[in-house]
Amino acid sequence: MAEAMIAGILGKGKFPHSQIIVTNRNNQQRLRKLNTKYGVIAIKREQLNFEEIDILILVTKPKDIEDVLHFLKTKLKPHVLILSAVAGITTSWLEQNMPLGQQVIRIMPNTSSLIGESATAMSPGKNTREQAIFRGKELLSKMGSVYLIEEDKMDIFTGIAGSGPAYFYFLMEQIEKAGNEGGLDIQTVREISAQTMLGAAKMVLQHMESPARLREKVTSPNGTTAAGLAALEKYGGGMAIFQAIRGAAFRSKEISTELQKNKFIR
Ligand SMILES: NC(=O)c1ccc[n+]([C@@H]2O[C@H](COP(=O)([O-])OP(=O)(O)OC[C@H]3O[C@@H](n4cnc5c(N)ncnc54)[C@H](OP(=O)(O)O)[C@@H]3O)[C@@H](O)[C@H]2O)c1
To answer: Is 27 in the pocket of ligand 1 (CB under 6 A)?
Structure first.
């Protein structure tokens, strides 16, 4: 996820490579690769100079967050704004465990950050001031669109946008199968389905009409689209998508609860 964020931030060419510093726990090879590929500064975490850091983005697995906070304890400076993409870790937990009344923002990007097309949520903590929210949003908007949401909506946001790319990939897999069966080669049908999805997405974003209205407009009675939609209904397509989002949101909440019950964090 961190690599996707780096690529997104650098993507539009307006952010200097030398202002991004990456570190990790101990994988030196990975740091060298990021340095070579993106021109960012990649150093051991012991070499970080916190005086020079404005925004610190945490992108570890939840189980590693305690170690991160232990490491930061004696080094963090009060001016450093924390953006945390760590799943399930709440702003209030971070605030309680940061030594200096830190300003924190919980974020939920997705992997389309890689190409600057993420839908990213941000929820500021209670200590976080307007100016910090502005700075955070400015940075995140280099990776795509940013949505300021209340933290209790983070689970449903995760179900829609965090996990969302996978649903669309799955859908495209099914389209590829059908297209291939109908005689198109995989590469051609892949491009056709991606372009069709992109066109539909842009119609919603640019025309600001509801998907229901757009669907009605392209559906003639007894036509091909009506036949396709009828099959979608018959085989539970609509409900399947609805339940996928609910399931992912439920799992997101469950992970948060498990964390709070001290399974991963004390
Ligand atoms: N993938 C997604 O679509 C997505 C979307 C939104 C949010 N997220 C969240 O992003 C987080 C990271 O996910 P991921 O799949 O990118 O994980 P990952 O590939 O395992 O990467 C985790 C990184 O954290 C580093 N790390 C671990 N402990 C550390 C420590 N104590 N100090 C410094 N660095 C440390 C690791 O370094 P080493 O390799 O050296 O151990 C590694 O570079 C998760 O909480 C995930 O839920 C993911």
So the answer is: yes
> Which DSSP state fits 107?
E
In angstroms, rounded to a whole number, what is the distance separating the alpha carbons of residues 130 and 119? Answer: 21
Give the global pTM.
Answer: 0.93
Ligand 1: nearest atom to the Cα of 45 = 33
pLDDT band at 99 (very low <50, low <70, confident <90, very high): confident
Q: Which residue has the higher pLDDT, 252 or 101?
A: 252
Q: Are 154 and 147 in contact (CB under 8 A)?
A: no
Atom of ligand 1 nearest to the CA of 165: 3
Position 206 pLDDT exceeds 90: yes
* CB neighbour class for 149 (10 Å; exposed up to 12, middle 13-18, buried from 19): middle
Is the CA virtual torsion 38, 139, 97, 1 positive or negative? negative
Instruction: Tally helices (H) and strands (E) across the chain.
Output: 11, 7
CATH tag for 164-253 (out of 3.40.50.2000, 3.90.1150.10, 1.10.132.100, 1.10.3730.10): 1.10.3730.10
pLDDT of residue 264: 55
